[in-house]
Amino acid sequence: MKTDVVIVNGNGKGREEALASIEQIMADCGQKEKRRVRLLGEELMCLVNEISGDMEADFWVERVDKKVYLHLSTNTLMYAEKRKEFLDVSTTGKNIKRKGVLGKIVEAYEKALSPKDERTAAEMVFSSAGIGGSSAYSSSTNLMWSMSNYTDVLYGTAGTEEERDDLEKSIIANLADEVSVGIAGDNVEVIVEKTLKFCGRGFENMNV
Prior knowledge:
- The protein is α+β, with helices and mostly antiparallel strands.
- The protein has helices spanning 15-25, 31-50, 76-89, 100-113, 116-128, 147-154, 161-169, 171-175, and strands at 6-9, 56-64, 67-75, 142-146, 178-184, 187-195.
- The chain has a six-stranded antiparallel sheet.
- A hairpin with a 2-residue loop joins strand 5 (178-184) and strand 6 (187-195).
- Helix 2 crosses helix 4 (100-113) and helix 4 packs across helix 5 (116-128).
- The longest helix has 20 residues, at 31-50.
């Protein structure tokens, strides 16, 4: 089951329609389950607001068995000129380094959207941090960042106490099973994955 694609941007275009599509695909789920997935959708809308260069993206939701996948996909070629315009008018000509889990997702997304020579350098950095390989969800996606690998790094030798604290407080880290940022052809896509426990006939009105 898949919702229609909604075009969203940092100015709020498509936001309510995107969140309504989550309600639609979660219609047979318990109330708490619906709220959790909606919160994940709201976090993705925050991500859109944070991306530099007035990004426009396609948003849709899929349900496969007991899994729900929230997708946000942007064409790298269409975004390149917007990004250049944004950096040209910024004070430093560079993006601000972001903090927190959502900030890391934004950072990975922006690096994936950067020109190919910059992207190659970014992929090397992610790889050296133990983040790389192929996405389990899509064999065509060249994974650049995943929350599970990021978590492993933070609780290994590379993470700081502040970063671990940010992870534990993060809505998206606490509610999602996995978040990945990857490149598939000319598109960069973030996929948020959540396992559903209280969905199906009889759960619609239950507060679970």
